[in-house]
Structure formats: C-alpha cells, structure tokens
Design goal:
- The structure is a single chain.
- The protein contains 18 helices and 2 strands.
- It is mainly α.
- The protein has a two-stranded antiparallel sheet.
- The two termini are 23 Å apart.
Amino acid sequence: MKCWQYFQAMVAGTLLGVLLAVGGVAPWFFGAWEMWWFWPFVALLSVGALCGGGLIVWLQQGSASHRATLVLWACVPFLCYTLLRWWAGPAVFVDAERAVLLHVSGVLVAALVVFALRDRHVPYLFWGLYSSLAVMSLYGILNHLLTGSQRVLWAPGYAQYAGRATGPYFCPDHFAGAMELLVCMGLGILLDRSVGAGRRLLGGLAVGFGGAAALMSLSRGAGMTLVVIGGLVVIWGFQQWPIRVRWAWRVVCAMAGLLVLAGAFAGAQGYRERFVSYGGLNRVVATSEEPLHTQVVDRLLRTSRGRMFAGSWRSWQTAPWFGIGTGMHRHVWPAVAASGDGDRDAGVWPTLLNDDFHSYEVHSDWLQLLQEYGVVGMGLFLLGFGGIVAFFWQCFREVAQDWTHHELEYLDACPRDYHLVLAGFLSLGAMAFHSLGDFNLQMPGTVWMLAILVGLGIRARCRLLEDPASEWPRELCVTGCNAGAGYKA
C-alpha cells in the first residue's frame, strides 16, 4: 500500500512539475516561440498528459463538476476540425502540425489543471506562475533601465524595437501580453474578500510591476488592453459585495480610471505620440479634394498591420467556409500581399506591392483564425470560447447571490479561491481583446500560461459554491476565513 501511495504521489508531483515547466519556464525561452524550444516543451507536456491520464483513469483522481466537463467538451469539435483540416486540406506539414499542437496543447493544459491536478497542488501552481511572471517583470524593467533592452536573455535584441522593454520575448508586444496576465492575477488577489493583508500586498505588487513593465514596452495594444481590463473589473470585479457597495466601488473605480487616463495622456508624451503618429495620422489634414476619413483609411492600410489585415482578408475570401488551411498564412502571403487593384492582363501594377517584408503571422489572432479555418472553424471555436465565458459569468452571478444572502456568515468564514476565478476571467478577456491587433496567442508560452489561469478559474468555480453557507455547521462560521473555514479541500 505504501509503495502504491508513493507511486501515486510521484505521478501527481510529476504532473505539477510539467505544468510549472510549461507555464513558468517555457516563457523564459523566448516564449517557446523558436522552433528549437517549442518541441521540447511539447514533448514534456506529453509526459504530463500521461501522468494526468493515469491519475484520472487508473487512480480515479478528478474533481470537476459535470458543467466543467461540458465546457471543456465544447472545445473538442474545434480541435477535431483542426485535425481534419490538417489531414484533408492543402497544408505544409510541419507548420500545420505546430498550429494544431498550439490549440491542442492549450486545451490539454487547461484540462489537466481542471481534472487531474491534486487539490493541494493548486496553490503551488498559482504562486509558481505568479513568481515566474513577477521575476519576468523585474527582469524586463531592470534590463530596460540598465541596458536599454539591447539583449533578450542571451541573444541580441531586434534593432526596430530599440527603446522598448522586451523582457524574455523578442517582441515587446508579446512581453506586454505576458505582463497583462500578471496584472490580471494581481487584480484577482486584490479583489478577493477572503484574501489576507499579506497576499493583498502581493496582489498590489503584481499590478504595479506588471502594469509598469507593460507600459515600458510602449505597446499600444497593451495600453488599450489595460483599459479593457479595468472595464472588466468595474463590471464584474466586485461581485462579493452587497449591491449598493458594489455600485459605489464601480463609480469610484470608473472615476479613478478616467483620472489615470487623463494623467497618462498628459504626462506620458512619448507613449501618447505612438498613438497619434501611428501610420502618419498626425499629418492628416482635411481638404476638399480628399475627405478626412479617406485619408485615415488610406494611411492605416499602408501600415504593416493594415497590409497584413487586408492580405489576410483577401486570402480568406478565396475559401470563406473552410479556410485556406492550417498554418498556411505565411505560405500564401506572397500571392495575396499586394493590394487587389492590379490587373495582370492590362499590365497595371497594384498600388501596394508588399515586396519589402514577409508576414509569418497576421498580427491578429482572430483574423488569422478566420483566414485559415474559415467560417466553420470560427463558429466551432466560438462555441468553446463562448461556453467558457458563460461559465464564468454564471459563477459571478451565483457568487453575487450567495454573498447577498449570506453576508454575515461569510464575514467570519467565506469560501476561498475566488481570486482564481477572477484572474482566469480577466486573463481570458485581456487576451481576447489584445489578440484583435496582435498575435500573442501564437506564442506557446503565453498560450500555456493563459490555459493554466483559465483552468484554475474553472476548477475554483466548480468548488467555490459546493457548500451553501446556510448548511455550514455553526462552529465553522466562527473560525475565521484565514483558517480556511467553509472551504472544501
């Protein structure tokens, strides 16, 4: 019996180690973006899948509700579709394989966290990821202040990103995406009423250092994403409070957010210039010959993102229902890069040739998803994504109702781990928004960090409301929240 228990503990510890490796270590290898670093971590994740499968099937380890099972099963149709498109569609094998594994591994990590991870390992995983991101923020800030981010870890940085913090990522926008996850974790800790003063301090440090590192990257997308995260907090961040207090907090935070935006607009001149000068918009002047909106659209289409967006859109139109094929954007780019106003037969050259750069990814994960998988693939993806979002929304509604009905009991002994739910939801919202104009979710390390946070949120949501306060024994209601009363471990 002792040997069997030792083996069970060893398998569970191996699973925890694998999750910590793909979530806390992989981002330090340039986000696991380079092909040399992607495959070793995928192989390591395969070991974690074997351990998780053993814990679920052989050792009967598992802790998720039927609703969590349905939510994750809603992601399976899209994964099956990606495999079919890879097998049946015109695809370059290695690039298609990597694209499929990126989706499969993300869902796999979340499933391992929800179904296979032991209860006592949840804090180790969360705080391990927190520690990795916190150290990453310090490294990015110090590396930028001391060296100007001339090097990315042991490799030289890219010259076009001079003056911007990059951390362990080659691109500062991707570093900013990782820092957004740290901000979401910090906000989840700060807004959880069951968290003590010491952990609230850690939450505040995460928000401060993560936000500072994201802004030092000078990423326009990160600035807008931080505003969106603030909006999500205003709407869903105060569900544990009575409704009047909840609305008071919302008003206070909304006003404070407007003051911060005004201060940032007035004080951060260099960052502000990156917005107003994008694509030469600061040189647009309305004339009678060319309306203002026409000039704005024309200048935006001539930016690198505008060219990639337009090329991807024209590429999608060639196969609108099923897409051009998994991982095929980079291969069809030379054929769709030029603007569509040329005429080969008439000898008319396109207005934009796009012969000066190559697009490996569409700087928009959503648009690339539509391009490569078509309307059918986008619909199947939204099925799983919408199910997860609805899962979190239902949790917020139930938490608000439970706290409203049992405020007095919860003041003495409240359910814990609400910060996991809020951090997972905020992270999902942040990446969904930032991915409109960037490809953070083409970075495997970022995908795995997001999957861990979402998986922890789903797992915590399943257990958060297991025991209504009205059914607690009276002795549990006086032991105090910090002692873990009312929490079913």
